């Protein structure tokens, strides 16, 4: 038997080094870090949202083989080879990366769908990002409790929690910014600029708005305590982040889109939707909208919805927990002993990160809280700096986080984990009872509601109807009926019938309409009618 005494010195050193590394990982902070990751991943996986953001349904449709136009409209073309993938310049490679993850899983487990894969990936990346944030905080303050509570403040904030359980490009993009932050804020190691640049490039290619992280990185490199040759360092990082992004955009522009050598056309494509999202009207209006949007980052949901769908005993228990948290939050606290914490040299980096994004969102995309996820880690890190010299506030923070997490779970996370809380998903699920066999669904406009119906009912085939293609559609109607399939029309066609006599006459040639089925109220109008053949 080989013993350490008789083993070669190199093997002994390797074993000792491995033991030391394992011991370091499973030290107290290491164990707590693993516990944070496991808790958050299980929490996110246990309550996936059914209130899917429409973009995520579009991603899943495209990844599974449904092509899209430049406007993101579903065209209903099924191709399993990846040539259908849509490269939206706002999130250029998101669908490609999703396809590369989904395809081998689907081949091994055909029942697995793209939406499930995207949600699982988002949940895992979110849990990892939160754990990395915990490590960053602990490396600075050496206070497990303080680091843990601030981490949970991010992980349980309403918008972050909701999008961690959905399919979207925001959480994966932010995920790559967090390891960048870890590398840039280690005071004992000079930042590996090539790695930082590549990670930032990955974030940009998943969602374009991550480019606003660039000024903050410049600040982080400039102020790092081990800085050396700052100008050459900034140049190296800029090249490492910019070249992969430029190469990817040029490849898609010329190789996929067949673009020409027009700088104006290329820039217009890169800034796709840029003018549409400019929302600034006045300083006062933007300020009010910005504050409201920032509040919605942390708190979300609908009390009226929770009152309808959350079981009374559960709701009573959750409200009780919130009441206890509020009591603990506002009751007098004993005078705490100050805990000396070294000033954080990376504070200007965090301030620049938060300020650049907040300034951009003051003028563009102001009302949407999910875009503020890109600077949410910086807000948490800035808050850590603010609280480091305020032990009274530190003592109240756990009660606030308990209230925050319970509030979001009671009024948003749990209610929206139920399909009936989201009518498009609920109607799409109920449609399985009427679309038990293949059906042809005719539509005029590819609405987001139709994306839900199409995705959750893959047995359906969808065909657009306009004046130019009615002969072709008529042929498809006859083919469907000969195959024993039903024919339906959607809301967008039903809504045109009262004012379009020509469309009514054309439909009358192919059958009679049944009574409309679906939902129609002040908020949703999703209806379908079957086109029954003439008797």
Largest sheet: 6 strands, mixed
How many whole angstroms does the radius of gyration measure? Answer: 27 Å
Number of strands: 8
Spans where pLDDT lies below 50 across 5 or more residues: 1-7
Average residue-wise pLDDT: 90
Global morphology? globular
Distance between the amino and carboxyl termini:
88 Å
List the total number of helices: 23
Structural class call reads alpha/beta
Task: Explain how this protein is built.
The chain is α/β, with parallel strands linked by helices and 535 residues long. The protein contains 23 helices and eight strands. The chain has helices at residues 9-25, 28-46, 54-64, 94-108, 114-141, 144-155, 158-164, 170-184, 193-206, 214-223, 230-256, 263-270, 283-298, 303-309, 312-330, 347-363, 376-387, 391-413, 423-430, 448-456, 470-482, 491-494, 501-510, and strands spanning 66-68, 74-78, 439-443, 460-464, 486-489, 512-513, 517-520, 525-532. The strands form two sheets. Strands 3, 4, 5, 6, 7 and 8 form a six-stranded mixed sheet that branches. Strands 1-2 form a two-stranded antiparallel ribbon. A hairpin with a 4-residue loop joins strand 7 (517-520) and strand 8. The longest helix is centred in the first third of the chain and has 28 residues, at 114-141.
């Amino acid at each position: 038997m080989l013993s350490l005494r008789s083993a070669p010195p190199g093997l002994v050193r390797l074993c000792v080094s491995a033991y030391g590394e394992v011991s370091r990982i499973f030290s107290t902070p290491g164990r707590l870090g693993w516990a944070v990751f496991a808790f958050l991943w299980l929490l996110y996986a246990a309550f996936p949202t059914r209130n899917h953001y429409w973009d995520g349904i579009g991603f899943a449709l495209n990844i599974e083989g449904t092509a899209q136009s430049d406007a993101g409209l579903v065209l209903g073309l099924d191709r399993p080879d990846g040539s259908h993938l849509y490269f939206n310049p706002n999130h250029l490679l998101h669908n490609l990366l999703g396809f590369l993850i989904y395809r081998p899983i689907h081949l091994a487990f055909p029942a697995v769908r793209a939406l499930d894969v995207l949600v699982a990936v988002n949940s895992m990346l979110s849990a990892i990002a939160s754990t990395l944030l915990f490590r960053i905080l602990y490396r600075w303050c050496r206070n497990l409790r303080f680091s843990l509570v601030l981490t949970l403040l991010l992980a349980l904030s309403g918008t972050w929690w909701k999008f961690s359980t959905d399919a979207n490009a925001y959480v994966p993009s932010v995920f790559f910014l967090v390891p960048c932050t870890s590398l840039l804020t280690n005071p004992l190691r000079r930042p590996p600029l090539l790695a930082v640049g590549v990670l930032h490039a990955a974030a940009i290619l998943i969602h374009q708005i991550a480019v606003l992280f660039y000024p903050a990185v410049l600040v982080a490199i400039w102020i790092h305590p081990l800085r050396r040759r700052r100008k050459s360092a900034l140049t190296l990082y800029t090249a490492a982040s910019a070249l992969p992004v430029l190469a990817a955009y040029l490849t898609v522009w010329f190789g996929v889109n067949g673009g020409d050598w027009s700088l104006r056309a290329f820039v217009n494509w890169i800034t796709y939707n840029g003018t549409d999202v400019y929302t600034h009207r006045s300083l006062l209006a933007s300020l009010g909208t910005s504050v409201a949007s920032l509040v919605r980052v942390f708190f979300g949901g609908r009390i009226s919805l929770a009152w309808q769908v959350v079981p009374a005993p559960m709701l009573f228990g959750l409200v009780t927990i919130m009441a206890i948290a509020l009591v603990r939050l506002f009751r007098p606290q004993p005078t705490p002993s100050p805990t000396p914490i070294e000033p954080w040299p990376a504070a200007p980096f965090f301030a620049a990160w938060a300020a650049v994004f907040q300034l951009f969102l003051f003028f563009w995309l102001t009302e949407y809280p999910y875009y503020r996820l890109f600077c949410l880690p910086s807000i948490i890190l800035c808050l850590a700096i603010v609280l480091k010299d305020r032990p009274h506030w530190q003592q109240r923070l756990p009660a606030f986080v308990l209230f925050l997490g319970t509030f979001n779970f009671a009024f948003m996370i749990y209610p929206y984990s139920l399909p009936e809380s989201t009518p498009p998903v609920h109607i799409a699920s109920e449609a399985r009872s009427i679309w038990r066999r293949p059906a042809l669904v005719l539509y005029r406009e590819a609405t987001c509601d139709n994306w839900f119906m199409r995705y959750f009912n893959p047995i359906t085939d969808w065909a657009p109807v306009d004046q130019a293609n009615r002969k072709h559609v008529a042929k498809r109607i006859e083919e469907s009926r000969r195959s024993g399939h039903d024919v339906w029309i959607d809301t967008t066609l039903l809504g045109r019938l009262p004012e379009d006599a020509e469309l009514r006459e054309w439909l009358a040639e192919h059958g009679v309409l049944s009574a409309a089925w679906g939902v129609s109220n002040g908020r949703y109008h999703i209806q379908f009618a079957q086109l029954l053949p003439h008797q």
